[in-house]
Amino acid sequence: MTDSAMTPARRLRNIIGGSAGNLVEWFDWFAYSAFALYFAPVFFPEGDDTATLLKAAAVFAVGFLMRPIGAWIMGVYADRRGRKAGLTLSVTLMCTGSLIIACTPGYATIGLGAPALLLLARMIQGLSVGGEYGSSATYLSEMATARHRGFWSSFQYVTLISGQLLALMLLIGLQKTLTPDQLAAWGWRVPFFVGAALAVIVFWLRRRLDETRAFIASDAAEAPKSSALLLVLKHPREALLVLGLTAGGTLAFYTYTTYLQKFLVNTTGFSKATATEISAAALFVFMLLQPAVGALSDRIGRRPVMIAFGVGGVLFTVPIMTALSTAQSPLVAFALSMSALVIVSGYTAINAVVKAELFPAHIRALGVALPYAVANALFGGTAEYAALWFKDIGMESAFYWYVTGMIGVSLLVFIFMRDTRKASLIVHAD
Questions:
Q1: Nearest in space to 397 (alpha carbons), one of 332, 324, 344, 318
Q2: How many angstroms separate the CA atoms of 128 and 90, rounded?
Q3: What is the biggest distance separating any 2 CA atoms in the chain, rounded to whole angstroms?
Q4: Contact, 375 vs 250, CB < 8 A?
């Protein structure tokens, strides 16, 4: 790729291509959460509704525990072999995991083999998503120009949310065309077949992407080879910053996205269909907010936007969750959910670019991916399980305070870190 070849149109094509692949990755990942209300009894047939959802949430959390391993292996791979190579490998793994879930018989047919295969599939998908985040965040941040980097990198979460939204929209469509018995018997398998098929298309699409100039320049300069040891020894402060700023943000994000649907059913008392529609409507508006917040960070800086999320999260998490638990009207539930997601946008829209701007190119994918994945495993992936556990022991409101406390920890990081827009280490993009 020559300088003259990177026209604005070609840059836009690459950003769209990378984003489309990210959408499919996250469609496959979130299909598990969106359809868990239906397939959980197939794999875990014993216990009441909360106990069954707890088992499904535990498998969801295990997938997150694999993300640091995927982030480590594939982050090093993307730093050494290229961002495009990392993106291509991640979508291959996601396709494999989706096919396993789609084809696995239930507990009634193969006994313990059913939850075991479900666990294996989520572990493979965890490896995939662990590498996907670092590769896609790095690719989009490096491909964008400095002036609009916040705006373009926000499309990582536009496509992430789009993937989740498409999973919910498919669920709504199936709820309207299939009976509840059909959905529980076989309809829940449809999204995993769809996701696997889309992943094949994306594999071809990602093979046609251009490599970023930042990686090419780093590779030509024979920079130190990416490794976890190099990250710990040479960039410990940056790695800890990523861990700290992610902790509260990822917990808030998964609370108001993947867990919200179950909360509206299991706590507020809405039907599964109504809860799905509320979640989908809120996610759609949330998706549209991301580029606007990203563009705002290009004008005023990353740090003020993240501080706004931290302050809003600390002040309003408990009131919003408390009000949601007793909401009688779907419109009220939507408004409360949307207010929470507006606050969370201060994290989601720009967290990828903030992390990418902290690291030099030769270790950027690993630096972005590994500490992020660790924080996700500890706080994001366990959000549903923690919420359901607190509910199961009769202390559901304690979860609201837990989310508030973790956002407060991240707020301290935001306050004391430098603004990466002014001190970005991303070069060779313009």
A1: 318
A2: 5
A3: 63
A4: yes
